[in-house]
User: Fold this.
Amino acid sequence: MRIVDIREVSVPLEGNIANAVVSFAEHDVSLVAVESDVIRNGRPVTGYGFDSIGRFAQGGILRARIIPRLRAADPASLLDESGLRFDPGKVYAAAMRNEKPGGHGDRAAAVGALELAIWDLNAKLADVPAHVLIARHFGRAPQSQSADVYAAGGYYYPPGSGRTLRDEFAAYRDMGFTGFKMKIGGASLARDLERIEEALGVAGSGAGLAVDANGRFGLDTALAYAEAIKGYGLRWYEEIGDPLDFDLNRRVAEVYDGPIATGENLFSLADAVNLARYGGMRPGRDIFQMDAGLSYGLTEYARMIDMLEANGFDRRSAHPHGGHLINLHIVVGLELGGCEAYPGVFQPFGGYAPSCALGGGQVRPSDAPGFGLEEKPELRNAIARLAN
Amino acid sequence: MRIVDIREVSVPLEGNIANAVVSFAEHDVSLVAVESDVIRNGRPVTGYGFDSIGRFAQGGILRARIIPRLRAADPASLLDESGLRFDPGKVYAAAMRNEKPGGHGDRAAAVGALELAIWDLNAKLADVPAHVLIARHFGRAPQSQSADVYAAGGYYYPPGSGRTLRDEFAAYRDMGFTGFKMKIGGASLARDLERIEEALGVAGSGAGLAVDANGRFGLDTALAYAEAIKGYGLRWYEEIGDPLDFDLNRRVAEVYDGPIATGENLFSLADAVNLARYGGMRPGRDIFQMDAGLSYGLTEYARMIDMLEANGFDRRSAHPHGGHLINLHIVVGLELGGCEAYPGVFQPFGGYAPSCALGGGQVRPSDAPGFGLEEKPELRNAIARLAN
Assistant:
């Protein structure tokens, strides 16, 4: 068994929205196809993966460095001991040949897209949903359960724009969501508190509402917000300062009793170790949001989960960033805390397929083999671009 | 005044050598040209920069993200207050529009190559060597002095290969070098100690010899080497463990009295802050090796130097990674500790121009405007590829 071809396309994200720091209008995503020489129903079994949502496609690194290394590798060196599956860890190592330690940025997304396509391919070879393959691979019992999911968004609406935060969250509630996340830091603290009150009108209580500063705050602002919001009992206070400012996170954690969530902009085990060492994260309370697609794929991500458990954190404290099918399967397969969703935006990658049951704040993967990306109508055109 | 065109080429590094972790045979470098609309002697004044040595060209990120943002920027928004120079900080900010915090890897090199070309362009517009422009920009008195330089290399030679480490270092000594750096960690500790003894035969004393583990060691090996080499009084013990394993660095620093050097694989101010906070680095003793070309350019690098000074470190504790003309000008302009050189390898970028006086362990920039890359014969073909 061998890889016959690896293809990639850059797919622009649709939707023109802004968080506190960046506009997503120019963001795109690398979608990767790994075609095997196994033929079923007259077609080669092919795995698809992508590098998650919210940063950039990595076609340059994939074409210049990663794909040529996989093409040059001995095909047998990429298989597991059975010879019936590709070994994601060996593929990861081959993709990283001659890369230096450190510098976990764009490269981590390029490798992530490829490595996740291997998981999709293996699940299709085994004819099981990816979450079943993932559970078995890591020695866990496959789950049939749903994952907790919450609706993220909570954008800024200028007064008189004809739409409100309350309207936005009410629409999510009508879709079946019971938890919500909103942006903060794009307006004054006083205005953000008004918006939190408005959102609580839909969420019902703080337990159903998280707030996300998108890494915007310096220490003084971080502490001022912490003091101002502490009475709401919010679900969590997310990405308060620069993702590498572990000291800021620690200092907020020392005075803010509610849960803190962070990690979506850490792209390696080494960075996640430093968050656990220096960030003041509290077992049983705080939330880790690292994302396999931006972090070299599931092999590296699973090492992060092992590291968290070794440091006293429960795997249910992991809520991966990026609301999409790949992370749904990872959450169910590894029995993590839950998923996010960004209803209506970040298409064609964001959200779930119609065959995934959504309701009561839960989402359930379908029985499609692999990640089931082919079941998502919005992805049809992008996948068609990868046809041989 | 405006930028008329930005061009980039990927230039392979020549030389087939291996450090403890990676082969450099496949590494390449992005060389960037920024052409202005200022015409002198019938030709547009053009700045050149590159992203240093030892990692990869970043043509994909430059073409997909960085160069389009500069093209889209209002030309006046890229000038300093005088209107006579481009503002490197504004160029840096424009290059990073819509980029998220964190993930300081390949992107940092792409931006670095471009931002350094702006410094070369500004120096040519002012008709001064880049080190003079750099000194003035940061409010320092321009220096005419040389910089300390040492010869790095110290590779592994199989017995019977017909060449030895002693031969290699003797050749560097004959070129005018008085300080040397060798690889460790590619053989057993016992074998590396023999090699250190062999190198000391040329270096004369430990003060002239540094050892570089290239981030290879885990804690046990790091401590075993520290114990074994402590009696030599070596110049420094470099990049002992993973560049992000600040705790390992701290634990070695607690027991190893000699200088420790690290930082070449940290690519942002945020990462350098964490090294200063958590790495156990000792003011007056340890060495920082961050490299502007891999770290968003000189604007970000100068912020790192300010940060080091604010934390009690002397700017002479900075010895940038990457032995080449750009870092020579930065070292002289900012009065840093010194440069490295890799004689004979990493061509066409490595080393200095014939017009740079080298001798007595010192190297002096020439009077050419800018970084003087045009004076380096090995670079002629690469620069010619960037001609309009």
The first strand of chain A starts at residue 3 and ends at 12. Chain A has twelve helices and twelve strands. Chain A touches chain B through 46 residues (CB under 8 Å). The mean pLDDT of chain A is 95.
